[in-house]
Amino acid sequence: MPIEFRRAARALISVSDKTGLVDFARGLAALDIELISTGGTHKALVEAGLEVLDVADVTGFPELMDGRVKTLHPKVHGGLLAIRENPEHEAAMLAHGISPIDLLVVNLYPFQATIDAGADFDQCIENIDIGGPAMIRAASKNFNDVAVIVSVEDYAPLLAELRANGGATTLALRQKLAQKAFARTATYDAAISNWLAEQIGEDAPAFRAFGGKLAQTLRYGENPHQKAAFYVTPERRYGVATARQLQGKQLSYNNIGDTDAAFELVAEFDPERTAAVAIIKHSNPCGVAEAASIEAAYALALRCDPVSAFGGIVALNRRLDARAAAEIVQVFTEVIIAPEADEEAIAIVGAKKNLRLLLTGGMPDPRASGLTLRPVAGGLLVQGRDNAVVDDMELRVVTKRAPTEAEWRDLTFAFRIAKHVKSNAIVYAKDGATVGIGAGQMSRVDSTRIAAMKAADAAKAAGLPRSLAVGSVVASDAFFSFPRWRSDGNRGGGDGAHSAGGIRARRGGHRGGGRRGGSPWHSPDSVISATDFAHTPFSGVARSRGVNPPLRLYLIVLFNKTLCNLL
């Protein structure tokens, strides 16, 4: 039968992070708890004037092998694992001179910080803690009798409980601390195993561990009946997990997901080359643009779908300035995320008390490796992060006419956006801005219709006589039957401006469509392909003739799912 209150008479302290150590140890000493310590921890406590027993005096062994062996000894582990009031355990302790240890305080070697700092292989290996996790697991297993602390943040609550209970801990606290301690060692081991797998080039290890630390509990998940929490992983990637929230309500589950999607999208644009803004709703972009300034890019992004932008997430790849902030706050917005912000911009946003402002301090690298996870019943799908960047692709023209420089710019812009649109994905873009986006439909034809409708609606909202899709680039995340696209797109409105001649992959070539819906069409006169993927994507340019009003040049881009990780 577990004992509810267990008096702590003896504590072993061995910590790498010495934050708050001396005050905590003084609090224990004031409760007549004997202190045992190791190495640098012992030195710090002695220098602070505390009476501390060196662990070597307990074990009868000095530290060995450059400190690799300090606490791996029966007099330490026996003191942690012995079951109190168990006659056999008590007899063994008496026979071997083992005294019980009632409180263990350990934080581990900073392995993650070491690899984050770019240390070499040998340094990383030396920062793998062995004795610490062994003691933590021993104390945690014996939570009926032993309390274990693995985090500085638990010093104050433990001291408060000890003082309230005459130097004793409660079973409930010991159980809670044990659970946290096991989670800590699991996370620590996950970081080590994942790092070593990366070092040896093992993409699919036999066992895969993932670790995270609680960042915040959430009011609910995607729906009100779902419980949720937000955990941060060891990966130091600029984004919502590392951002500093300056103001506004706590982020919700959906806010966090949408903010991450927005910032990852806008990171596709190099801030040294262009300003870019993405507006996200339900993980899909409803407007993206690049321009000379954040203010101009926001105006173009908002123009694409101002209705859907209401209540959305706005992500920037450059500093938020006052002019841009003044425009953004005119529309109800849930979150703004940016690498930095001017003081004047912060003040402008501050007038909207519920608007969250997140500053990350930098932009994530779209080329960086990493993993993405997707749960399935009874398992996890694990794959590498989609770090394909269009600038790095080998694109080749496979028709007589090559795209113009302006067409190339819009082509690469469209590639960047469609990568972040849920499949089936269709993106209309023109002059560095999206003008219509169709996302997440079971039929690519339906996504085309939606994108065409959005482009027409945006034109009406802006007071323009023709669809924004006129003269635009069109991007699709996979092969499309172009004769079908041509006819359905033409019915979508905008004088057929969202459609173009059919393209169909055939032995590396293409073939065009004919006349449909009263509009004359002909084969594209320029096709390009990206050759560094298993299934060749295609793009093309089509020109229509004899139509009143005359149609401008269209660029159609196709690329398959090996380019974009679209779920």
UniProtKB/TrEMBL annotation:
Belongs to the PurH family. It catalyses: (6R)-10-formyltetrahydrofolate + 5-amino-1-(5-phospho-beta-D-ribosyl)imidazole-4-carboxamide = 5-formamido-1-(5-phospho-D-ribosyl)imidazole-4-carboxamide + (6S)-5,6,7,8-tetrahydrofolate; IMP + H2O = 5-formamido-1-(5-phospho-D-ribosyl)imidazole-4-carboxamide. It comes from Methylocella tundrae. Pathway: Purine metabolism; IMP biosynthesis via de novo pathway; IMP from 5-formamido-1-(5-phospho-D-ribosyl)imidazole-4-carboxamide: step 1/1; Purine metabolism; IMP biosynthesis via de novo pathway; 5-formamido-1-(5-phospho-D-ribosyl)imidazole-4-carboxamide from 5-amino-1-(5-phospho-D-ribosyl)imidazole-4-carboxamide (10-formyl THF route): step 1/1. HAMAP family: PurH. GO terms for biological process: 'de novo' IMP biosynthetic process. This is Bifunctional purine biosynthesis protein PurH. PANTHER family: BIFUNCTIONAL PURINE BIOSYNTHESIS PROTEIN ATIC, BIFUNCTIONAL PURINE BIOSYNTHESIS PROTEIN PURH. InterPro entries: AICAR_Tfase_dup_dom_sf (IPR024051), Cytidine_deaminase-like (IPR016193), MGS-like_dom (IPR011607), MGS-like_dom_sf (IPR036914), PurH-like (IPR002695). The IMP cyclohydrolase activity resides in the N-terminal region. SUPFAM superfamilies: Cytidine deaminase-like, Methylglyoxal synthase-like. Keywords: Hydrolase, Multifunctional enzyme, Purine biosynthesis, Transferase. Residues 504-514 have a biased composition (Basic residues). The keyword Transferase applies. GO terms for molecular function: IMP cyclohydrolase activity; phosphoribosylaminoimidazolecarboxamide formyltransferase activity. Residues 1-150 form the MGS-like domain. Residues 490-525 are annotated as: Disordered. The keyword Hydrolase applies. Its EC number is 2.1.2.3, 3.5.4.10. NCBIfam families: PRK00881.1, purH. GO terms for cellular component: cytosol.
